[in-house]
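Retro notes - structure team

What went well: the batch runner handled both jobs without manual restarts.
What didn't: labels got mixed up in the shared folder, which is why I'm recording both outputs here explicitly, each with its sequence directly above its tokens.

Job 1
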Amino acid sequence: MLSITGNHFKTGDKPAIRKFANFVLNKFVRKGILRKAKITIKVMHVSEFEDADDIRDFRMYRAWCTYDGNDNDVKKFTVILNVSAMKNSKNIKTRLKNLMIDLGHELVHVKQYLNGEMRDYVDGSYKFLGNKYDPIPDGEFSDEYFDSPSEIEAYGREQGLCIMFWHKVKTGEIVL
């Protein structure tokens, strides 16, 4: 199940975001696994946060994904996206391009969790593709962050996913 929330959309934005998210998830995750997942995408403005740490993180990272645990065998995720990534344009592709790049990045992380490629530990360390990694320092872009294999995959795929999606829209394979 996929839900999209936010108060910052123009006509057509939510359906386009939903189609992009489904495009990405269907590309990497089997349907049986997706049926047991609940992904909430929230497009927010910094003013909608109250916690100082969330405000700081939101300004620094623009987007993030959290694995929120299992509920009756359904894996739950929240993807937070910064509305500032949206451009003020009548053209939907121009308006949503940067937001979709951020969303593609975060959905790669959702894919990593759903496919069992990544697992978090209480101490902040994580396992990715069978290898355990130390916690990434909080609140900074560091060598450890950019060198981590899960981020290399997410950054490596984010642009291409967006390009592939808009190509399919242009050729009529996906209709907005």
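Job 2
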Amino acid sequence: MTSQQEGPASVEGRPGETDEQRADRNFIDLLQELRVTQTGVQILFGFLLTLPLQARFAQLDRYEKSLLVIAALSLAVATTCIIAPVAWHRALFRHQLKKEIVDASNVFAKAGLTALALGIVTSLMLMLGLVLSHWAALGLGAAIGVLLLMLWVVSPVLRRRELQKR
């Protein structure tokens, strides 16, 4: 992409691109991003689902079991949101609603990434809490939460604002 295409004008699309073509391109881009995310979510979620079946599970305290529940529910929400665009596309296929599908899919992707971030932090806190103190796990979990927030939200928003000023 050239620097001209990266600025606010890129919101309008590529030169000569119809609204339908832009919606198709945006949907393909979004699905590719979700494919990358989906694998990680499914692996982490699958692992958490097996944890209660492990022998050491009975030794978990109430705090650790709470973290497991929060992590599993967060990853269930993440999985649901990340797969939702496929369901929407299938249900609305050939109804000339691609832009609406893309807009809804964008919301689902953001919600899925939010739930994924919570699932990552709580899973990490659970694991670290088994080998470190709860306070150390909480501190490290918070640090990862801040890192996720900075890389997934703050940095892109700042970059977008910088580009919009041009």
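One thing worth noting from job 2: DSSP finds five helices and no strands in the chain.
We'll revisit the folder naming next retro.
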